[in-house]
Amino acid sequence: MMVVVAAHRATRSVLLAVAVLALLAPGGAQTIKQRPPPKKKITGHPAGSQAVPGEKLAQDIEDLRRDVNALKEMQALHTMCLRGTKTRDNTCLLLFAAPRPYHEASEECFARGGQLALPADARAAEELRAYASPRLPAATDGAPQWLWLGASDLRERGSFADATGAPLGYAPWAAPGAPRGGGGAVAASCVRAPLQGERPAWDVAACKAELPFVCQFSIPA
Question: Which residues form the signal peptide (predicted)?
Fold first, then answer.
């Protein structure tokens, strides 16, 4: 009995030794495959990298579109200057003889890339009158012809300001002090200038009144 047990143990030892040798032999062990770590999703371009060709092309197209629009605006501005007149302070004036309410006149100028003319000093006021007066027929009753200017008290009744809300730095009112308003106690008043007379004498009228107007365009330096 003891002999059988000893033989069995010897056999197990031999088999174990063979198994160990098999594992240590080249190619005898299986390679354990490890799952690669998940790739991180990259948003945008890492620092120092360049945009892919498709994105660069899209950016080039957008830049070209902006350049074309800028050229169109410049061409439109030159067209306005050719139709009107250029002043000494690098602006263009364009007369619209058909009478319009103040709001429509202002919107017309804005749609064309300008604003209602508003002289900043006596010289600019004289340039405006010298340009517009001969191009508008005088009133049949001998009354002066008026133009809308780019100023009103739409923001605050009785306080006249330009289209940006800035107070008027130059305002040659016909009477001393700012007028109380031509639109009544409630309605807003808009500023107008006469084209006849020895000096500028601004006044106001109800903004719904219809008058000719001049658009003013700034020329880029």
Answer: 1-29
- 114 in a structural domain: yes
- Asked whether residue 103 is domain-assigned, the answer is yes
Task: Please report the beta strands in 50-188, taking only residues with DSSP state E, as ranges in sequence order.
Answer: 85-86, 91-101, 115-116, 146-156, 159-162
Distance CA 204, CA 190 (A): 5
Question: In which domain, by residue range, is 128 found?
Answer: 93-136+144-218
Tokens linked to 204: 């106001």
Q: Does the pLDDT of residue 38 top 60, yes or no?
A: no
Q: Report how far apart the first and last C-alpha atoms of the chain are (Å, whole number).
A: 117
Give me the pLDDT at residue 199, please: 72
Q: What is the model's pLDDT at position 36?
A: 58
126 C-beta neighbours (distance < 10 Å), count: 13
Quick check: 104 pLDDT over 70? yes
Is the residue at 211 inside a domain? yes
DSSP secondary structure letters along 38-76? PPPPP-S--TT----HHHHHHHHHHHHHHHHHHHHHHHH
Show Cβ contacts of residue 141 under 8 Å, excluding neighbours closer than 6 positions. none
Task: Say if residue 124's pLDDT is above 90.
Answer: yes
Q: Express as a percent the part of the chain with pLDDT over 90.
A: 38
Quote the number of domains for the chain.
Answer: 1
